[in-house]
Design goal:
Layout lengths: L10 H6 L4 H13 L1 H8 L13 E4 L5 E4 L4 E2 L1 H5 L1 H7 L3 E6 L6 E5 H17 L7 E5 L4 H13 L2 E4 L6 H10 L4 E5 L2 E3 L2 E3 L1 H9 L7 E5 L13 E3 H5 L11 E2 L3 E7 L7 E6 L1 H14 L7 E4 L6 H13 L3 E5 L10 H9 L3 E4 L1 H8 L4 H4 L8 E5 L5 H11 L6 E4 L33 E4 L5 E2 L3 E7 L9 E2 L3 H9 L6 E9 L5 E6 L3 E4 L2 E4 H9 L4 E11 L3 E10 L7 H14 L8 E4 L13 H8 L16 H8 L4
Parallel strand pairs: 4-17, 6-7, 6-8, 7-14, 8-11, 11-12, 16-17, 16-18, 18-19, 19-20, 30-31
Antiparallel strand pairs: 1-2, 3-13, 4-5, 9-10, 14-15, 15-24, 21-22, 21-23, 23-25, 25-26, 27-28, 29-30
Helix pairs in contact: 2-3, 6-7, 8-9, 11-12, 14-16
Bound molecules: adenosine-5'-monophosphate-propyl ester (PRX).
GO molecular function, one term: metal ion binding
Family: Belongs to the ATP-dependent AMP-binding enzyme family.
Protein name: Acetyl-coenzyme A synthetase
């Protein structure tokens, strides 16, 4: 199949879009020339209790300080709810589609407002105050969005933990932010199976003495143990609560949420986002990137446990008064036509998913797609990992019938929202490229020494200046924030990604350049998987790298050295995979485990991951220089015994 170089914006799309090329150029110019004026104007998309007069106050050097709209006062939940009541109180805010295709709910803005107030009052009655951290460990049910907004309403800082994480991972996150209250459900549902959320909370709580209250939403009605004095059924506590709860006035720089994400070293870090800049960014990017028009149905398939769910299921769409769809299930249950059936059923106009889902569905061919209409679709989006041109074109031709522009959106937990993406009516698309920066975003490519590279080139992707949605710190560890993001290349925020820029200035993200792997669009630190492996009694040492995987983008490849005397059996291999699943969660399960009698190390004892990555990728004829190894013979053994 020949691949078109560029797919130009269609005139009929540009004509109806919020932003066409001329407007994009104008916005980009104004944002570059006078960021203060540009963002002062854009801040008006948010309803402030006290509008900001100080717009931007940022330094990327020294102690790194990032402040936007710092004298403004607002409430995020009021922006998502209260301000819409007069104009669209009876409009559907959330369409919920159950795992079971027979189940759905429509929740209006008025109903959502009432429910958020009830949950906020429950939290208050349990002693939650402004600034307290509330852990949210929920399935994809409406109450997950309610919990998030209820925290925001009373000024509590939510820390959502993805429902697929293990009790241990959950416990680490509760401990790190010293959270005394947690909101969960009895069970979740995914692909016809139950996820024992409350039981996981009970297991996590054993190592979390700070956890004083657990609010449990009855979702499936499954059997759970309730601990007297600690556990509270949400429906019982809510029954007597008033349906009104005034939104807490928050300073723009008051924390809104913490979200843990994996880095190249150590434990996951608590990415901290604050209120004003994040809300402006969520609203701005959701409106323009998806060209959201009033009345449209918008569906982001992410889980609320990831940043994509925070910004593009909850805050962005609700701030913009959109109808946002929340899907409890998975793409292939009951069958691989499910996404498109949901699109037809709810007349979805804008659809946002991850390349891994597209690649998985491609395997089944066009049949499951083509038996649906998808006539309502207007814009398609991609997020989480590089989308290969083949998957891009399938998405474009088969799913979108060559009618819908694709926005490939590059961003990170740390960036709060999208930074590089096409705009449907403004930017000609190139399959596989995230295209151009949004107005106000200043990407730079730098070489290993921090020199800025000009023109068509390839390098480390940094941002030369701040944008309102940027993370402010690592919760409880500002030094780690500076070290991780601002110490590699002085004066720049370093993303950890590599990118190429072509002659048209388009960005092509090449993937992580650090020890983070991207499995099905989820970030996993190799160090985390390694420490899980070595926690097993039979493992002496482990080294983990990513390798190219057809569906997942990257898979997890582990080299394991056993304790002397242990037999490397098939059973033990399976046991170790199960062990990592249990320690971290299913997303961390290694795809391959190779027994390694020795690991390639330098004479100073440093593992040479470059070589391990090559072996895992089956590029063994380009291993490079191995002469600095303490024992070059270990490499021959690893190459000989490579996993098929
Ligand atoms: O490597 C990039 C990749 O995902 C990383 C961020 O992961 P996370 O914080 O979990 O957020 C995922 C959702 C925004 C980035 O460092 N990534 C994300 N979007 C893209 C991408 N890589 C290529 N193209 C994208 N569109």
């Amino acid at each position: 199949m020949s691949q078109p170089e560029t797919i130009p914006v269609k005139p009929e799309i540009a004509a109806n879009a919020l932003v066409d090329r001329a407007r994009y150029d104008d916005m980009a110019r104004r944002a570059a020339e006078n960021p203060e004026a540009f963002w002062a104007e854009e801040s008006k998309r948010i309803t402030w209790m006290t509008p900001p007069t100080r717009i931007k106050n940022v330094t990327f050097t020294g102690n790194v300080s990032i402040k936007w709209f710092e004298d403004g006062v607002l409430n995020a939940s009021a922006n998502c709810l209260d301000r819409h009541l007069a104009t669209r109180g009876d409009q559907v805010a959330i369409i919920w589609e159950g795992d079971d295709p027979g189940e759905q709910k429509h929740v209006t803005y008025r109903e959502l407002h009432a429910e958020v107030c009830r949950m906020a009052n429950v939290l208050k009655s349990l002693g939650v105050r402004k600034g307290d951290r509330v852990t949210v460990y929920m399935p994809m049910i409406v109450e997950a969005a309610v919990a998030i907004l209820a925290c925001a309403r009373i000024g509590a800082v939510h820390s959502v933990v993805f429902g697929g994480f293990s009790p241990d991972s959950l416990a680490n996150r509760i401990q790190d932010c010293d959270s005394s209250i947690l909101i969960t459900a009895d069970e979740g549902r995914r692909g016809g199976r139950k996820v024992p959320l409350k039981a996981n909370v009970d297991a996590a709580a054993k190592s979390c003495p700070m956890l004083k209250k657990v609010v449990v939403v009855k979702a499936t009605g499954g059997q759970v143990d309730m601990q007297d004095g600690r556990d509270v059924w949400y429906h019982e506590a809510a029954a007597t609560m008033p349906l009104d709860c005034p939104p807490e006035p928050m300073n723009a720089e008051d924390p809104l949420f913490i979200l843990y994400t994996s880095g190249s070293t150590g434990k996951p870090k608590g990415v901290l986002h604050t209120t004003g800049g994040y809300m402006v960014w969520a609203s701005f990017t959701h409106q323009y990137v998806f060209d959201y028009h009033d009345g449209e149905v918008y569906w982001c398939t992410a889980d609320v446990g990831w940043v994509t769910g925070h910004t593009y299921i909850v805050y962005g769409p609700l701030a913009n008064g959109a109808t946002t769809l929340m899907f409890e299930g998975i793409p292939n249950y009951p069958d691989t036509s499910r996404f498109w059936q949901v699109v037809d059923k709810h007349k979805v106009n804008i659809f946002y998913t991850a390349p891994t889902a597209i690649r998985a569905l491609m395997r089944d061919g066009e049949g499951p797609v083509k038996k649906t209409s998808r006539a309502s679709l207007r814009v398609l989006g991609s997020v989480g990992e590089p989308i290969n041109p083949e998957a891009w074109l399938w998405y474009y031709r088969v799913v979108g019938d060559q009618r819908c522009p694709i926005v490939d959106t590059w961003w990170q937990t740390e960036t709060g929202g999208i930074l590089i993406s096409a705009l449907p009516g403004a930017i000609d698309q190139k399959p596989g490229s995230a295209t151009l920066p949004l107005p106000g975003v200043k990407p730079v490519l730098v070489d290993g020494d921090g020199n800025v590279l000009e023109g068509a080139t390839e390098g480390n992707l940094c941002l030369a200046d701040s944008w309102p949605g940027q993370m402010r710190t690592v919760y409880g560890d500002h030094e780690r924030f500076i070290q991780t993001y601002f110490s590699t290349f002085r004066g720049f925020y370093f993303s950890g990604d590599g990118a190429r820029r072509d002659e048209d200035g388009y960005y092509w993200i090449t993937g992580r350049v650090d020890d983070v792997i991207n499995v099905s669009g989820h970030r996993m630190g190799t160090a985390e998987v390694e420490s899980a492996l070595v926690a097993h009694a039979k493992v002496a040492e482990a080294a983990v790298v990513g390798f190219p995987h057809d569906i997942k983008g990257q898979g997890i490849y582990a080299y394991v050295t056993l304790v002397a005397g242990e037999e490397p059996t098939e059973e033990l291999r399976k046991e170790l995979v199960m062990w990592v699943r249990k320690e971290i969660g299913p997303i961390a399960a290694p795809d391959a485990i190779q027994w390694a009698p020795g690991l390639p190390k330098t004479r100073s004892g440093k593992i040479m991951r470059r070589i391990l990555r090559k072996i895992a990728a089956n590029e063994t004829d380009s291993l490079g220089d191995t002469s600095t190894l303490a024992d070059p013979a270990v490499v021959d053994d690893l190459v000989r015994n490579r996993m098929a």
